[in-house]
Specification:
By secondary structure, the chain is an all-alpha fold. It is 80% helix and 0% strand. The protein has a single domain, classed as A middle domain of Talin 1.
Length: 210
């Protein structure tokens, strides 16, 4: 079976990312909420940062009419590794929010109430209900994002296998359909991540006096 040829730099990059994913899985049991809203926002932004390049690669793949360009296949493989590594935290927290529910919010609220910033400490208590409302929105969007990530990553792995088998041949209709499906799933993921970040900004505004 023909396969994608990786150059030395690409192999090194993938080995580094593989090491990162191993380290992530070693701490997978730490599913408590981030210490503050800023950290949660960074996690979401990190995921958005790796989703967009994959979406761009899928756009490029969808425009291929003949044999797959080797450099584009290598770019796809690297983007997939980045996506899995860069979205790990937000996917883990989405699982935890879904499984732990109110207990997750209570722990998040505790982090906020123990803030070193006196104003945040006070407002976290004063605006408990407003923050809980924001959390509910974030929880729902996170659950949808987590659910959307599953078929997205599954499609991408299936696409990787298809591209490897067609590395030296023309694009098949089935592979093109898989690309289209992956692009659609990726857009769902991106939309939910944007919604989470927007509501985190709303929550942050509730911890600042006008």
């Amino acid at each position: 079976m023909p396969s994608i040829h990786w150059n030395t730099g690409i192999i090194a990059a993938l080995m580094t990312l593989s090491g990162c994913r191993t380290a992530h899985h070693d701490v997978a049991v730490q599913t408590g909420p981030p210490d503050d809203i800023a950290e949660a926002r960074r996690n979401v932004t990190d995921s958005l940062t790796v989703v967009q390049p994959m979406h761009d690669v899928l756009d490029d793949l969808s425009n291929v009419g003949g044999p797959w360009p080797p450099e584009l296949l290598n770019q796809f493989t690297i983007s997939l590794a980045h996506l899995e590594s860069g979205s790990f935290k937000v996917r883990e927290h989405a699982r935890a929010m879904h499984s732990r529910g109110d207990a997750y919010f209570d722990e998040w609220q505790l982090h906020l109430s123990q803030s070193r910033e006196p104003e945040v400490h006070q407002l976290a208590s004063e605006r408990h209900q407003a923050l809980q409302h924001s959390f509910g929105i974030i929880q729902q969007a996170s659950q949808r994002a987590g659910e959307a990530f599953k078929p997205f990553l599954s499609d991408l792995h299936a696409l990787r296998r298809a591209l490897e088998s067609e590395a030296t041949s023309n694009a098949s209709d089935s592979t093109k359909e898989l690309i289209r499906k992956a692009r659609s799933e990726g857009q769902k993921v991106r939309s939910e991540l944007v919604a989470i970040r927007r509501e985190l900004d709303t929550a942050a505004s509730k911890l600042t006096r006008a």
